[in-house]
Design a protein that fits this description.
Layout: E1 7-10, E2 16-20, H1 23-48, H2 55-66
Antiparallel strand pairs: 1-2
Amino acid sequence: MLTVNPKYITNKAGKKISVVLPMRDFEAIIEELEELEDIKLYDEAKKSNEVSFPIEEAFKMIEAKRK
């Protein structure tokens, strides 16, 4: 589980309006979001039932079309 240490900026009424994070926490959050996006895209691809190819074969096909 990701643990972050936010600092809050509040308005005059004490309502939280912004968050300040250490860079390492921010970068960890970004990494987690990117991983979640990859999982989401993988799940969508699996549901699509489209024909798939191993990556090496796909690269060969792309290179052949370039020539």
